[in-house]
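Sorry, any thoughts here?
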Amino acid sequence: MWKTRQRMTVTGMRTVVGLAAAWAMVLAVPLVRGQEAPASSYAPVVERESFERLVERMVAEKAAIAQRHQRLLNERYDLSDRAADGVAMSRGKPIQAGVRVRLPEGVTWQQLSAMSPAEIRTRGLWPAGFYPLPHPHHAEGGMLFPRHHIDEIKRQESRDLTRFDLDYDLPRHFLPEYPPPIYLTTRPDLGDVSQGEVVTIDNYYRLFAGILNPKQLEGLRLLLTPTAQQQFNATHDRRSLKAHRGVTCFDCHVNGHTNAATHLVGDIRPQPFRHRIDTPSLRGVNVQRLFGSQRALKTIEDFTEFEQRAAYFDGDPVIATKKGVNILERGSQVHFMAEFQALLDFPPAPKLNVFGKLDPTKASESELRGQEVFFGKGQCATCHTPPYYTDNLMHNLRTERFYQPTMILGRMAAADGPIKTFPLRGIKDSPPYLHDGRLLTLEDTVEFFNLVLELRLSEREKADLVAFLRCL
């Protein structure tokens, strides 16, 4: 009897120790005081502080975090509102002009492009604006929406996308026009079918009934239906003041395009190596074969399902279960959503012919010269092939040739890795540029690739190339 009790006691002790170890792993706290917790791929499931204390702490930290990030932006960029003459997006918003990335002191763009990658790296001359762009609070991350989108969704749906801890960072004049037009491959005769409205669950039926078939209409409804997300959900581990219904696909891809909402990729650990995301446009997904800036998902259905199951929750299915993951049914819901997305067309490009090249009777001399640079010295067409200006492949620019790995406000700038070739059709409608939005204008983008690809373009060649890109 005594031996039996002893065995039970030992077993019980082992159970207690095992449970303690398990809870320590869940809570991500060390078992021994002073012992550093091991690195983990998982977010903590159990909250360690009350929601009221969480809000109080993060609100108190908000101003200092914003000021620190704003200093970084000001050091990197000229953020002034300086529009290009006579050039606008599809609905008339002016396009920002000029190179906005600040140069290192004592060097010009031409001098820099004449140097080798090794020399730029050794001398520390890689422009600050060409480093990866951190999230406004990289250690925290999460979805962030521009204020004008927050205001519009609150007006239409009484759904508040405000975060109590962070605000969006880039000035509105560098963002896509709002609301963006919607062009359908099936009904080009209609022009902008959004009729100048932000499409939401409140108005989609009025705008699209009689234009879409029943599957497409249902797919659009699902794209406009809120579902739980890491920062916007009903748990106490959220970043909205009130318990939240969540976000919609079109909260980032507004009107099937983009409002430049930002987030962090869910497929990289640890946190400093996670890349910031600039929301890409969904226009022209019917001609694309890769989805996600770096994940290389093979179909739009894969992308749609992955976003709901994992990307909405930082790629963590454990925390997704806690916060209310939306499991879509592949054969109907995912298919319907994909069917609508496949209808989203690029904006009209009246200077292009059916092969995606300039019509000489409609283009200026500068635009025609820019086309020659694009297909010649600039080597742009190596990846961006007409008519949609994508090769549907991944390419590694190896920008790490130019700089030493460095920590920037919680973001480890080490390597970008392979990046999807985004279509350039309609590119003037989709600032900022590159997968993380680090390039604010097309001029910035041309200078970036001139340096990375070691092209040594002249000033006129760069200006002509920008003129051509604005025609696409």
